[in-house]
Design goal:
This protein has six helices and eleven strands. It is α+β, with helices and mostly antiparallel strands. The chain folds into two domains: 88 residues, Gcn5-related N-acetyltransferase (GNAT) (Aminopeptidase); 129 residues, 3-Layer(aba) Sandwich (Aminopeptidase). It has an eleven-stranded mixed sheet, sandwiched between helices. The chain is globular and about 50 Å long. Keywords: Acyltransferase, Transferase. It holds the Pfam family FR47. One of its GO terms (molecular function) is acyltransferase activity, transferring groups other than amino-acyl groups.
């Protein structure tokens, strides 16, 4: 896939664009507001504005940060570091919605979604994350079995995120159907689907087989402001 300036810096473009109303910060740093996904972004990861970030990040809170690889400045700590792939859908458009029976997740499902995310650990997730886009799930009675939805976005681009299946319900293809549903919806409105997956996650190979391709690999860190 050709380089796309919006996709290259999608966290920043989301927090200053489509999700600006859900974010705080000014100048060179932004973060999702409390309750949403604990993510920060810098206007220029090569020259991160930690002074701007400190104004909206209380000591002790942890945030995910993409693409910044420098040393932590005084007052900040790197709690974890890894790499992740940004993958873009390059397969054919699904001929039809593969999950027409999936349930749209509503605010009353937020606690169940957060619990499932805590169990499956798909990445940064908050109680209000499902408000960032369209989320869908499968239920066994009142129990949420699987979910997937949308998070980051920019013109022509929409992320598939929060992909989870409860261990008791794995092997049924639920997550694959939900991903297909989102791809189908994105294609219908002219958006390209993309997602993130950690290098260490076996799902990377699954996504390649499904029709996603690697767009880039970046450093991802969990950082926190120290109480000094």
């Amino acid at each position: 896939m050709e380089r796309n300036a919006l996709l290259d810096h999608i966290f920043w473009h989301t927090l200053t664009g489509a999700h600006a109303q859900h974010a705080s910060g000014s100048g060179g740093a932004r973060r999702y507001n409390e309750g949403f996904s604990p993510i920060v972004a810098f206007a220029d990861p090569a020259r991160p504005d930690f002074d701007a970030l400190a104004a909206v990040c209380a000591p002790g809170l942890s945030f995910y940060c993409d693409s910044w690889a420098g040393a932590a400045p005084p007052g900040w700590r790197i709690d974890a570091e890894s790499t992740m792939f940004r993958m873009v859908w390059s397969g054919p458009a699904p001929a039809a919605d593969p999950a027409p029976d999936a349930v749209p997740l509503q605010p009353q499902h937020a606690a169940q979604a957060l619990e499932l995310a805590g169990l499956c650990k798909p990445g940064p997730f908050g109680l209000r994350t499902i408000e960032l886009g369209d989320y869908f799930g499968y239920f066994d009675g009142e129990r949420l079995m699987a979910m997937a939805g949308e998070r980051l976005r920019a013109p022509g681009l929409c992320e598939i995120s929060g992909v989870c299946t409860h261990p008791d319900y794995q092997g049924r293809g639920l997550a694959k159907r939900l991903i297909g549903k989102l791809i189908h919806r994105h294609r219908q409105r002219g958006d390209t689907s993309f997602l993130h997956v950690m290098r260490s996650n076996d799902a990377h190979q699954l996504y390649l087989r499904m029709g996603f391709e690697d767009y880039l690999e970046s450093v991802v860190r969990v950082i926190s402001r120290e109480d000094i």
